C-alpha cells in the first residue's frame, strides 16, 4: 500500500523574497518526495479542495473568517500573523486547512496519511498569529466529528512552540486531548493550558527528549482512548533551527517520528501527520528533516 500524501501547489504562497518564513519548503518537499519515488511505488499524492466557510465557522469567529476570505484583515492582526494578507496567502490557508481535513479522512480510511503543510497551531478562535492563519488541525477535527467519522481525537504536538491556539480552542472539550511537548521559554510568551503540557528546558538533546516523549505518550495512550490521532511533526526542535531552543539532531528527529508512529500504530489508531514548523536557513537540510515524517509514515500503513 502507498502512503497517501496531501499536497497543493497553493501551499507555496507569494510573499516578499526576503521574508523570514521559509515558504519555498512546501514545494521543495513535494518535489523531493516525488524525485525519491520516481515509479510512484511509495507515495500516492492527493490534491485537496480549499476548506469551506462552513467548516471554518465550526472553529473560528465569523468576522475573522470573512476578513481572511475577503483579504481584509485588520493591519494589527495581519502583523501578528506575520504575513501580508493577500489573495495568495488567504488561498494558501484555505488549501492547507482543506489539506489537513483530507489527510484526516485518508488516515481514517487507510490507517496513515500525511499533509505536506498544516500544523498552524497558534491560530485562535478570533484571529491568527505566529505565521498561522487558520487552525487547520482544529478545523479538521471539528469536521470529522461533524461527519461522525471520529468522536475522540488525540493531538500530539511536537513543534518546538506550544500549540496555544489549539489548546484554547479545545480547552473545555473532553472529546479532544491536546498534548504539547515544547520549549518552555519559547514563543508564545503567554501560553494556554493544553490537556497536558510538557515544557522542556533550553538545550535539551536527543536521549532526554526521547525518554520524556516515550513515557508521556505511553501514559496518554493508556488513559485517553482516541478514534483518530493528529501528529504535528514540526522539526524546529533541531539544534540549528533559528526559532527553536532545543538541541535535537537529525537522528533524534527521525527517532522521534519512529517512536510516535510505533506507539500510535501499535494501538491500531489511524494517524494523520501534518508538517509543522521548521526555520533553518539551509532549505535543503530543512526539507531533509521534514522528509522523515513521510519516510517513516510509509512503513506504518
Could you characterize what this model shows?
- The chain is 40% helix and 13% strand.
- It is built from ten helices and eight strands.
- Strand 1 (3-6), helix 1 and strand 2 (43-46) form a beta-alpha-beta unit.
- The protein has an eight-stranded parallel β-sheet, with helices on both faces.
- It starts with a strand and ends with a helix.
- The chain is an alpha/beta fold.
- The protein is globular, with a radius of gyration of 17 Å.
Short précis:
Belongs to the histone deacetylase family. Pfam families: Hist_deacetyl. The chain has 301 residues and is of the alpha/beta class.
Annotation keywords:
301 residues, 8-stranded parallel beta sheet, Acetoin utilization deacetylase AcuC
Overall average residue pLDDT: 97
Determine Rg (CA atoms, Å). Answer: 17 Å
- Describe the strand arrangement of the main beta sheet, using strand numbers: 2-1-3-8-7-4-5-6
Q: Which bin fits the share of residues in helices?
A: 40-55%
Large-scale geometry: globular
Strand runs, count? 8
List unreliable stretches of 5+ residues.
Answer: none
- The helix/strand series, from N terminus to C terminus, equals EHEHHHHEHEHEEHEHEH
Outline the secondary-structure elements.
Blueprint lengths: L2 E4 L18 H11 L7 E4 L6 H4 L5 H8 L5 H7 L5 H24 L1 E4 L20 H11 L6 E5 L6 H6 L6 E8 L12 E5 L5 H18 L4 E5 L17 H17 L4 E4 L8 H15 L4
Amino acid at each position: 500500500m502507498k502512503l497517501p500524501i496531501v499536497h497543493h501547489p497553493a501551499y507555496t504562497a507569494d510573499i516578499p523574497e526576503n521574508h523570514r518564513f521559509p515558504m519555498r519548503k512546501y514545494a521543495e518537499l513535494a518535489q523531493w518526495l516525488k524525485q525519491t519515488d520516481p515509479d510512484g511505488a511509495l507515495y500516492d499524492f492527493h490534491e485537496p479542495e480549499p476548506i469551506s466557510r462552513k467548516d471554518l465557522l465550526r472553529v473560528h469567529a465569523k468576522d475573522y473568517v470573512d476578513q481572511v476570505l475577503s483579504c481584509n484583515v485588520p493591519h494589527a492582526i495581519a502583523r501578528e500573523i506575520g504575513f501580508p494578507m493577500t489573495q495568495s496567502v488567504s488561498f494558501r490557508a484555505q488549501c492547507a486547512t482543506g489539506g489537513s481535513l483530507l489527510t484526516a479522512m485518508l488516515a481514517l480510511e487507510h490507517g496513515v496519511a500525511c499533509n505536506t503543510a498544516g500544523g498552524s497551531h497558534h491560530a485562535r478562535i478570533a484571529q491568527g498569529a505566529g505565521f498561522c492563519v487558520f487552525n487547520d488541525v482544529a478545523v479538521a477535527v471539528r469536521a470529522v466529528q461533524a461527519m461522525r467519522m471520529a468522536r475522540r481525537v488525540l493531538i500530539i504536538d511536537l513543534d518546538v512552540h506550544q500549540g496555544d491556539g489549539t489548546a484554547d480552542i479545545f480547552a473545555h472539550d473532553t472529546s479532544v486531548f491536546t498534548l504539547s511537548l515544547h520549549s518552555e521559554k519559547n514563543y508564545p510568551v503567554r501560553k494556554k493550558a493544553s490537556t497536558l503540557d510538557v515544557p522542556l528546558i533550553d538545550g535539551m538533546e536527543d536521549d532526554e527528549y526521547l525518554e520524556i516523549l516515550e513515557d508521556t505518550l505511553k501514559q496518554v495512550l493508556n488513559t485517553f482512548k482516541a478514534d483518530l490521532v493528529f501528529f504535528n511533526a514540526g522539526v524546529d526542535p533541531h539544534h540549528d533551527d533559528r526559532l527553536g531552543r532545543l538541541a535535537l539532531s537529525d537522528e533524534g528527529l527521525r527517532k522521534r517520528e519512529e517512536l510516535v508512529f510505533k506507539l500510535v500504530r501499535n494501538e491500531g489508531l489511524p494517524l494523520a501527520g501534518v508538517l509543522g514548523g521548521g526555520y533553518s536557513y539551509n532549505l535543503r537540510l530543512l526539507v531533509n528533516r521534514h522528509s522523515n515524517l513521510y519516510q517513516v509514515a510509509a512503513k506504518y500503513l
